[in-house]
Every structure is written in C-alpha cells, then in structure tokens.
Amino acid sequence: MKIVKISDVYKEPHAHPLFTGLDVTRQLLVLDSKEFNVNIVNFGKGVRNKFHAHDSEQILIVTAGRGIVATENEERIVTEGDVVLIPAGEKHWHGATEDSEFSHIYVTRIGSMLTQLED
C-alpha cells in the first residue's frame, strides 16, 4: 500500500498546446500504478483545455474551485466534490471559469491516447 498526501505533491508547470493559457500546473499523484494515470491539473482563472477526445474513459474529480466541463452539445458548471465520467471518444473540454481557479484529479488508463480536436 502507498499513501500520498496531495498537499505534499509538487505542482509542476504544465505548459502544453492543449491549454488556452500558461497558468496550468500538474501534480503526479500515483506514479507506481500499472493500470491508471492519476494526476491533478490546476487551472488558472479562465484557462481551459481545448476540445479533445480520449480512446478510453476519463474520470474527473473536482477538488477545488469552479469549472466548466463541455461537450459539443452542452456546458456544465462543476464544483468541489463533483465527479464526471467522460465516455471514450467523446469530444469535450474542461477548465476554469473566468472568475475562479479550478483543480481536478483525472484518471485515465495508462497507454490511452488523447487526440486534440481544436487548434
């Protein structure tokens, strides 16, 4: 068994073309899993990722702030304690509202592929 305290995990800058801004950090929570990627992404106010899809399901667990999870058909506001299941292949984005920072744990299958669908 291994236990990790989120507050002890380093927030590394995570500049990537998938995001609409540079105010993004990532915390690598579970490095030893053979099945899952489990990390936190922290978004600055108004920063989101661009439309993308995964070839496996993705789970988001909101840990702080106020965010938006969107598909081509809807946008939903999410807050601390909300859990979102995004089906494999669903075009979506997620990120902070204009007036709040936003953090979520994300869980995906190791080896799953992300395809960016927006420039």
Describe this structure in words.
This protein is mostly beta strands and 119 residues long. It has a domain of 79 residues: Jelly Rolls (Sandwich). 0% of the residues lie in helices and 48% in strands. The chain is built from no helices and ten strands. Strands 1, 2, 3, 5, 6, 7, 8 and 9 form an eight-stranded antiparallel sheet that branches. Strands 4-10 form a two-stranded antiparallel sheet. A hairpin with a 3-residue loop joins strand 5 and strand 6. 22% of the residues are buried. The mean pLDDT is 97.
Summarize the structure.
The protein has 119 residues and is mainly β. The chain has strands at 12-13, 24-28, 36-43, 52-54, 58-71, 75-79, 83-86, 92-96, 102-109, 114-116. The N and C termini lie far apart (41 Å).
Order of helices and strands: EEEEEEEEEE
**Would you tell me the overall average pLDDT?**
97
Q: How many E strands?
A: 10
**CATH homology superfamily name of the domain at 34-112:** Jelly Rolls
Instruction: Give the overall form.
Output: globular
CATH fold description of the domain at 34-112: Jelly Rolls
Rg (CA only): 14 Å
Question: Roughly how much helix do the residues carry, as a percent range?
Answer: under 10%
The helix-and-strand class reads: mainly beta
In percent, how much strand structure appears in the residues?
over 45%
CATH architecture of the domain at 34-112: Sandwich
Low-confidence stretches: none
